[in-house]
Amino acid sequence: MPTRDRASLDALHASWPQVLLLLGALIFRLTHAVDKLVLLRFSRAPPLYPARLALYVLTLFKYAAALHLLLGCWVFSASREDGGLLFPRPPISDAVPPRPDPT
Prior knowledge:
The protein is built from three helices and no strands. It is mainly alpha-helical. The chain has one domain. The N and C termini lie far apart (78 Å).
């Protein structure tokens, strides 16, 4: 490629980041203004939920945390015969030996 063409391409390449930064800043500003207008002028307040629902969800979090820990221990405890860790764990169906044919 001739030097003159390469210099013009370098100048073109060097001028685009500033234009893109300006364009991006304008788009972000416009998006912010529209979101603010819609949120403050046209949105309704969300419905209120009873406190009983929040307390029920808090009781479920204890069980969810315990289940998450147990599942994580099971997944990360898998290992291969050579001692290396195995992730992701193979399906349970691979661990269950096939039933003998009754014939």
